[in-house]
Amino acid sequence: MTHTYQNKGVCSRSTTVTLSENGIIQEVSVVGGCNGNLKGICQLLQGMPAAEAIRRMEGTTCGPRATSCPDQIAKALKAALQEEGL
């Protein structure tokens, strides 16, 4: 299932995640933000369990911000897992 999350507090605007029925990340895409870095992160996440990606990225900050694009991806993944009931 595909889910879109509106990012907050970062340069990127939104994150779209596609998960398999067992919570494995099939695809992640981010609109805005640091293009090359986010493309690389999105490629690294493919095939990873969403719970593991959340564990690794949640709480990451960017400069003085309390959040970051990876933290927003973790929030998007958490929301998607919740919507899927996983």
Automatic annotation (TrEMBL):
Protein name (Swiss-Prot/TrEMBL): ribonucleoside-diphosphate reductase
Organism: Allofournierella massiliensis
TSCPD domain boundaries: 5-80
EC nos: 1.17.4.1
Keywords annotated in UniProt: DNA synthesis, Nucleotide-binding
Catalytic reaction list: a 2'-deoxyribonucleoside 5'-diphosphate + [thioredoxin]-disulfide + H2O = a ribonucleoside 5'-diphosphate + [thioredoxin]-dithiol
Family: Belongs to the ribonucleoside diphosphate reductase class-2 family.
Presence of the UniProt keyword Nucleotide-binding in the record: yes
UniProt-listed InterPro entries: CHP03905, TSCPD_dom
